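User: Quick one: structure for sequence A, then sequence B.

Assistant: Sequence A:
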Amino acid sequence: MPRSLALLKLGALLASGAALALAPLPAAAQDIAPVGEPLDAALKTGPLLPEEVLRSSALTFPSILEAFEREAAARADQLGADGAFDLMLKGEYYDRLTGFYSGGFGKAEARQPLRPYGAEVFGSYRVSSGDFPTYENYNYTNALGEVKVGALFSLLRNRDIDSRRFAIEDTRLAASQAQLDVLLVQLNVQHEALRAYWRWVAAGEEIRVFEELLEIAEARQIGLTREVNEGARARIALTENEQNLLRRRSLLEEAKRNFITASNSLGFYIRGSDRQMIVPTREMLPDLSRMREISPAEKLAALPLGEVIQSRPELQTFRLALERATNKVALRQNDLQPSLNASVELSRDFGQIGPGGPGFDSTDTVVGLTFSVPLQRRTARGALQRAEAELRETELRQRRIADQITTEVGNILANLSAALRLSDLADAEVKQANAMVQAERTRFRLGAGEFFLVNAREETAANAQISAIRAELAGRLAEASYNAATMNLDALGLE
């Protein structure tokens, strides 16, 4: 084969390799949130159930979607770090167009970095043509070219860890942290969505109580007006009831305002397929009598809280952070090591002996060592001391967060137990207040009671109902907080 033709073929090979390297890679599969179609129909017609709110927030709430994108970015960083060990193809073509010498050559080389010992293996093929000056005689090859293989090794610094291997492990841990961050965001969002839902339900129940209280006063106003016109009752009773009407209307307006606020807050977590917020209305309020009862505190306390707390994403994130910090310390300790690198390469020319002479017609085995060490190493020592300080800081923060979570779970259980007891007491108070109202109304109809006492009993009964609603709300909120703290994914609509 003529050498010029061999050079042309080698040039074509290099061109095809470059084209392959520049070709777009197939898109990698991404771990993203399963969005699916939100329940638009269920969200816009009543009753609105907590499961529907949790599903909507889990699928459409921006914070959760943002967390998934952060995880995707972390996975992309991991892929980029892996690229430090990509196979590298390198091509070189050199030729003289004019001049006394006509020498030229083509070369193709592949290098593959390896993780053990920071090693790198390589192989190359080179073929030359023409004559070279004496100061370029190393470019000569035999007629069929030269094949060379070799390897490089790190024996001290960069033997066990270097910036490339550190980056791969660090981005892997960062991606795991991003995945835990997704879970943490989901827990927080679902917790807040559930709290907003129960506040909305409680606000709707309070409106119902004040509407009933106002209706009683309005119905009584009609009767009193008739009795005053007939001369059977003094006008002062009508005036007193008008005063009660104004007060009860004020209470109802305040309750309506609170309901609107609660509806807007809940609408923040409900979105349709177009990602637009949906503000719930009174027609979507559920029937509380058909809602699931709150789990007893004793049943919840029976869970192995120690294991649950240790599996919290915050603590798992800290464990990964400690591992990252430990790896960073190891990297900085590596920087203090002297550099001792070894190399070995084997080369062989093939074919008819070229213009370079018989000296190129042999199998050459070459080994080498290089050594270097910084004498003061202040930069490396400063970086190591900083990494060690960051590791100690992370350990202390992990201990504080673990104690904080344990305390919060204990407080949640105490609040839930107290809320359930207060709810029972509030229900009993409602029964007693209603009995007093009925008794006072009977006395009033028989002429033995006073109009003032009837109004007072009715408002006391209404206040008892409001207290019962708020006690039920406190229990629901405490249960939601407990489910979030113990990662009850089923109760939070995440399974």
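Sequence B:
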Amino acid sequence: MTFLARIPVAEASLIEAHWKSTIESRVSTNHFDPSHVLSDSEIGELVRLATLVPSAYNLQNWRFIAVRERPAKERLRAAAYGQAKVSEAAVTFIVCGTLAGSVDLGERLRPSVEAGVMPAGMAEGWVGAAHRQFTGNAQAERDEAIRSASLAAATLILAASASGLASGPMTGFDAELVKKEFSLEPNEIPVMLVAVGRAADGNWPQKPRRSLEEVMVLS
């Protein structure tokens, strides 16, 4: 039974229409209103929603650096090859993925065990499986860090859209300079920048997408 199936039909229809509209109306924004400001609580709520995304073994191997002060924005803009949206948006997030082998998975799973969500033996089994999968496998660790951070970034973008905000994801930046300027840990990878704020004039509409026939196979 889906979530929508558990609520009244009329309310379910409104919810479905809202989330479809949120996805269909989202655009990658390049021009932001530089006078717009987001509060600590508004920024925190976006991140909270982003962290509800799934991750392998519930690693939750991500971190969000919310860059909003002018000097920090200018440093990040320089690392992003001068892209204006970095400093014009109310906040630009550096979405980092953490190498899976460095995560204390037992500690991450402890709240689930204490809440009765999963048995202690299952949590121990997950810890062992993660250890076998990632220990000594740098490629697997990096892949998982990028997967987790990308899922979180995508959810952050949709959370912004659902909140009436514009967003602009970026992969065009000097990763090593971002690591240096924002004191990332050796086990952290800056995967994506996401600018969030109020859109200004001059943005493109959503660009046409490839047809279902081109991207989907039914088997």
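The chain is about 45% helix and 15% strand. The radius of gyration is 19 Å.

User: Thanks, that's what I needed.
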